């Protein structure tokens, strides 16, 4: 939710359509045929976000890194996802220009913050689990 709220605020304050890009499914076959509301698109984004979080949580249980390393890894993964998805802006006329440095910056800062928060939350779960076991 944090990333979505951040992107929505950035879009409202700057006019850069990064929130639209976050929710954009124009390029996904079958999904692009659905007439989803903003809430529906946001819910879809939350499902993807939850899957990323679960995937990282499972990966961190395997590698058993210290919390700080987990947080750095979560930031890196989130930034890689952001880098991979930004070019999808070429596939829609509703999203920012691929050449918009401001949109790239807002987009990557949002993904870095998301990764940091996710890493910290997973670290909290790790510490809590250690005390409960």
Describe the structure.
By secondary structure, this protein is mainly alpha-helical. It has one domain. Helices cover about 70% and strands about 0% of the residues. The chain is built from five helices and no strands. It has helices spanning about 1-15, 20-25, 40-65, 65-85, 100-130. The longest helix has about 30 residues, at about 100-130. The protein starts with a helix and ends with a helix. The mean pLDDT is about 90. Keywords: Membrane, Transmembrane, Transmembrane helix.
Features:
133 residues, mainly alpha
Summarize the structure in short.
This protein is mainly α. It has helices at residues 2-14, 18-23, 38-63, 67-85, 101-132. The protein has one domain (2-132).
Reading the helices and strands in chain order gives: HHHHH
Main sheet: strands, sense, barrel:
none
Helix content: over 70%
Structural class: mainly alpha
Number of helical segments with 4 or more residues: 5
What count of structural domains?
A: 1
Radius of gyration: 16 Å
- List low-pLDDT spans: none
Proportion of beta-strand residues: under 5%
Shape: globular
Secondary structure: number of strands: 0
